[in-house]
Amino acid sequence: MTADLPEGFLSFWMPIQAQVAPNRQTLTGECVAWAREKHIGGGDPDVAAVYGHSGASLLAYAFPHATGPMQRALADYSAWAFVPDDVADATINGSPPRTCEVVHELSRLARMTRSPDSWADDTTTSENALRDTIIRIRAHCSAVQFERFWRRQEIWLFQLVWATALRERGIPPGVNEYMAMRIGSVGLYATQGYIHLVENIEPTNAELARPLVQAAAEAGLTVATLDNERYSSVRERALDQDELALASALRVDSPGLTAAESMRGVVTIRDRILALYLRLRDQVRTDASPDLHKYFTGIDLVIAGNVAFGARAARYLNPAAGRTYQTTSATPEGLSREPLPYPTIAWWWHHLRGERA
Q1: What CA–CA distance (Å, rounded) separates 274 from 224?
Q2: Which of 54, 108, 45 is nearest to 77 (CA)?
Q3: Could you tell me the residue ranges of all domains in the chain?
Q4: The dihedral of CA 38, 39, 40, 44: what is its sign?
């Protein structure tokens, strides 16, 4: 329930306008049917429906520009993509899974994002579902877009293993290590792969390699990462899950913090990163190509749509919590403009105009 969450924890500063796909309900029905057909979640049709509903909701709210066969393929892929996330988070008889087992399973999946027929004669139900989506995605994009997609899905799958390893070690990370792990394992880079397909763009490698562009993109999508953590907390409390979380990492670094203080700290960190993103994004746009403009439009839509997704996707719903999510366009008072004291992300601030990396 939300009674133990501090005031304002589920109130999101959101100065970016959200959109939603007009065919959201139709997409949801189709994606649920696909998830049931492919036995996503072990064959239970109710569990499959949760995966399907969540995959369609992600596309409808976070990627509203997706249309046609690509929208369907990515919605189905997104429904499937919650499966490896659950594999990495699973507990077996009260203990985290062995890292070597997760490495083996997710490495097979990572190879399939590039080569979907790799295990054609020896596949699991999950691998069959992945193969179906990858073949469809590949059929509706350019070679450049597909390469950018699968490379970023590989990064995400391998970063999930880092989260599994942290759980198996049983040594809670501080904020710096947690942020380094979470940025990849929650799917920040995977999301970049989606944007190239959804916006139908091919910005040049030179543009994407610019440190300013990379800093802006990582900062913006980290906002969505931390928002995911906030709305996930409602579900995790309902399921009594002990998750790796930024609030816990803050208490590792500062053991005297109360739970409420650490959760308020999560909000402050997120808001400071969002403020930074808006400044970096505006710098990028001063000399960006049309495709790079569209790339950051895609990032904007992910940030804004992610909150709506978390409030509506079946995966995160907690009926006992009620409708407690709120957004506001008003900038929080007293936000520091100084870099956050975590080396893995502090370099983002170095690329603000007038500063040197």
Answers
A1: 9
A2: 54
A3: 11-351
A4: positive
Bigger pLDDT: 98 or 208?
208
CA 125 to chain centre: 24
Question: DSSP secondary structure string, 12-54?
Answer: EE--S-----TTHHHHHHHHHHHHHHTTTTSS-HHHHHHHHHH
Please name the residue that has the structure tokens 């995605």: 137
Fold of the 11-351 domain: Farnesyl Diphosphate Synthase (1.10.600)
The size of the chain, in residues, is: 357
Judge if pTM exceeds 0.70: yes
Residue with tokens 């409420």: 260
Q: How far apart are CA 285 and CA 307, in angstroms?
A: 24
Return the closest-CA partner of residue 282 out of 342, 215, 357.
215
Q: Which stretches within the chain are classed as H helix?
A: 24-37, 45-62, 68-89, 99-114, 125-139, 143-169, 175-185, 188-198, 205-209, 211-238, 246-253, 259-285, 290-312, 343-346
What span, in angstroms and rounded, lies between the C-alpha atoms of 274 and 221?
Answer: 9
Crossing angle for the helix pair 211-238 and 175-185, to the nearest 10 degrees: 90
In the block, tokens 């390893």 appear at 165
Going by C-alpha positions, the residue among 93, 112, 90 that lies closest to residue 102 is: 90
* Residue pLDDT, tens place only, 239-266: 445 568 999 999 999 999 999 999 999 9
Q: How many CB atoms lie within 10 A of CB 337?
A: 10
Is residue 293's pLDDT more than 80? yes
Sign, CA dihedral 44-47-53-56, equals negative
Q: State the amino acid at position 141 in one-letter form.
A: C
Structure confidence by residue, pLDDT tens digits, 175-208: 999 999 999 999 999 999 999 999 999 999 999 9
**Residue bearing tokens 């999946």:** 109
Measured CA to CA, the distance from residue 87 to residue 91 in angstroms comes to 9
